[in-house]
Amino acid sequence: MTTRYDAHFELGDATWLNTAHQGALPTVAAEAARRAIAWKQKPFELTGERFKGVPEGLRAAVARLLNANEDEIVLANSASYGLHLIANAYPWRQGDEIIVMETDFPSDILPWLALEARYGVKVRRLKPQGRVLSPDELRAAVTPATRLFCTTLVHSFSGHAIDLDALGDVCQSAGVVFVVNASQALGARALDVTGHPVDAVTTVGFKWLCGPYGTGFCWMAPRLIDRLHRTHAYWLSMLTADDLAGELGELRVGPVERAADFDVFGTANFFNFTALREAIDLLLAIGLEAVEDHNQRLVQKLVESCTENGYRLISPSAATASRSSLVLLTDDDPAALARLKSRLDREGIFTAVRAGAVRLSPHLYNSTSQIDLVGDILNESRAS
């Protein structure tokens, strides 16, 4: 029997199967945001301890989530923030090469393209034979000029997960920086950054982590931090409000010492960061393994319903390492697929359409009865 976690959320009668777009905010996170609003209503509640404690608390929660050190965490507002940070802070040289997947989500490609005219860097867009790049395809593409490889952990347009360790081994053996966008994975599954050959992981906080929109973070291995130069000098990453009470003396901008030197401006983001911390703490309390088990039970039921009713799966059909929490189905008859989407909409079942497929992305607030209803609709739509 699947454990019910929907009591932590307030979705009402809606069936939200679009976590790949936005995760639902848990009640405890909403309460934290309301407390933060109350602080702002009475600015004397915005104490120095809270200005310091909000980013410190979130950084500590993220470190626990990733089994990382706090000094390796960059607080951000998106996954793109981390990608642009690395793109603009890395010491590029004329002729350096970056490899991306041609069919990846745009956020994993665009930051690197902006470097071509500025530094003479070449971005190679590899088209995979399957849904995501295989280790053999990457190995064959790497050249002595290759400096960095960026890809997604779970592909938004197909639901396929990459072979993180095998791709990382290819990069590690060639001295290539390996950057991973985990936005469609982290929160639906555990990710221990100490157990994989990866140099950086960036993600949003508002999908599977169930935080507010406009949140995210980036983890970077110390070996990568040591190679990066400053992109900005944010005063709160170097000073505190208490420092303003006396003579500041001569301001200096020193070398990068920790990941926090790259934090987004406004790290005492009371409305968003307090809520994201509560959402992460909730997931950790439930346990990421339990969340993944719950999600995969729902995914399995969806896969079986799709197969039984003759829909073609874009996402993996077998329960292998390549399966994620995203289920994408399509039909050879576009009109039939459009009718299915319309029926789901009418029944208050929220999904998305990506790359010509209906995408369903269940999370811990969904129940087996909701998935059974989707199965009934798949059957009825096929029969009609």
Automatic annotation (TrEMBL):
Coiled coil: none annotated. This is Selenocysteine lyase/cysteine desulfurase. GO terms for molecular function: lyase activity. Keywords: Lyase, Pyridoxal phosphate. Pfam families: Aminotran_5. Residues 50-357 form the Aminotransferase class V domain. It comes from the Bacteria. It comes from Rhodobium gokarnense. InterPro entries: Aminotrans_V_dom, PyrdxlP-dep_Trfase, PyrdxlP-dep_Trfase_major, PyrdxlP-dep_Trfase_small. Gene3D superfamilies: Aspartate Aminotransferase, domain 1 (3.90.1150.10), Type I PLP-dependent aspartate aminotransferase-like (Major domain) (3.40.640.10).
